[in-house]
Amino acid sequence: MRALQSAIRLAPLEDGVRTHAPITTTFRLGKRSLVIIVLKPGCTEEQLQHICEKVEEMGFRHEVSRGARRTLIGVIGEEDQLRNAPLRAIPGVEEVMSVLKPFKLASREFHEEDSVFDLGHGVKVGGGNLIMIAGPCAIEGEDILREIATDVKAAGANVLRGGAFKPRTSPYSFQGMGKEGLQILRKVGDELQMPVVTEVMDPRQVELVNEYTDMFQIGARNMQNFNLLSEVGQTRRPVLLKRGMSASIQDLLMSAEYILASGNMQVILCERGIRSFDNSTRNLLDLAAVPNVKGLSHLPIIVDPSHATGRPDLIPSMSLASIAAGADGVHIEVHNCPEKAFSDGQQALLPAQYAELCVQMKALATLLGKTIPQAGQA
Ligand code: PEP
Ligand code: MN
Fold first, then answer.
1. Which CATH number fits domain 4-98: 3.40.50.970, 3.90.79.10, 3.30.70.1140, 3.90.1150.10?
2. Contacts of 223 (CB under 8 A, 6+ apart)
3. 242 C-alpha to center of ligand 1: Å?
4. Nearest atom of ligand 1 to the alpha carbon of 138
């Protein structure tokens, strides 16, 4: 089948921001698919390299998954071409199989062990490492962010959060500080030696946000913004992907698959509550999503009890329950003066409340044999 090539040129964000060539996306006529090559038990490193080279020569993309018991190679390409490719004939290949689940690179079948990602400053997530993400909903200024960040770090937070681009329900609400906010977040994160996470809302912002953050956040409202998913998929930066408010578990994993299939294997999922008929909490926290996703996928999954409940009185118990359910971390909004916060003040914990909760989360983590990495100890 003939390939139809089309280059998407992104408009410059603002003068001087776009520093490298625009990203070019290739569209192919026909259906893309993925097959898995299972390597023979004694397959050597040279044979593995040889297989990867052959796969590339055939015009396919690949991802290697090294497990304790076996090594697999995921091969992505056009379905017809994959079906006819002589992959079985390459030395070292034991079997070629297809994953039946609609999400493939995200599945446990492709990668048996839990994935572990490095966020910088000595902080890892997954495989028993918990991330404690904390900070204000929005970046509001340098001094206030530094104060909050200093407090949450002292309590045990190992990733600093803060939104510079805010997805607000009303166009009249505070929309975030933009680039200036990103600069403040980077500065405070560096000073305190904490990795930072911030939301990216639009494919055109990816290049700018990439310059300042250690991890992209894709918000609930953008979980199925497929252009955005593909764009962050072309970077090599970890992505925190929040579950959409009406998204099924399969929808969430399919959105992760978009990022993985674009070549970025570092996706961390986040359960942040779904819409329900009950309005006594902001959303309905689906805690079963944690062990549910863990059975289906190797990707880390964390919980955001702040947006899930919207209630400071429920956040401590739900944070502990999340860790007990096997979550790889919690994402909590903290503000030192919630009544003056530009957004989500009503759900923010005070630094002292966060510190008290951290004592309990650390004790629970120890009991469960989990590690809470300390930022800045690399
Ligand atoms: C946030 O983290 O501030 C946020 C907007 O979250 P969500 O996308 O889950 O609503
Ligand atoms: Mn918020």
1. 3.30.70.1140
2. 241, 242, 243, 244, 247, 251, 252, 255
3. 8
4. 3
Amino acid identity of residue 243, one-letter, is R
DSSP string, 178-192: THHHHHHHHHHHHHH
| Domain extents in the chain | 4-98, 117-367
Which of the listed CATH numbers 3.30.70.1120, 2.40.110.10, 3.30.950.30, 3.20.20.70 matches domain 117-367? Answer: 3.20.20.70
User: Does the pTM of the predicted model rise above 0.85?
Assistant: yes
Residue 243 is given by DSSP the state P
In this structure, are residues 27 and 50 in contact, taking their beta carbons and an 8 Å threshold? no
Closest to 125 (Cα-Cα) out of 182, 63, 199, 195: 195
| Ligand nearest to the CA of residue 343, numbered in listed order | 2
Query: Per 3-state DSSP, what percentage of the chain is helix, strand, and coil (rounded to 5)?
Result: 35, 20, 45
Strand, helix or coil at 4? Answer: strand
Asked whether the predicted pLDDT for residue 249 surpasses 70, the reply is: yes
The tens digit of pLDDT for each residue in 64-103 reads 999 888 899 999 999 899 999 999 999 999 999 988 899 9
345 lines ligand 1 (CB under 6 A): no
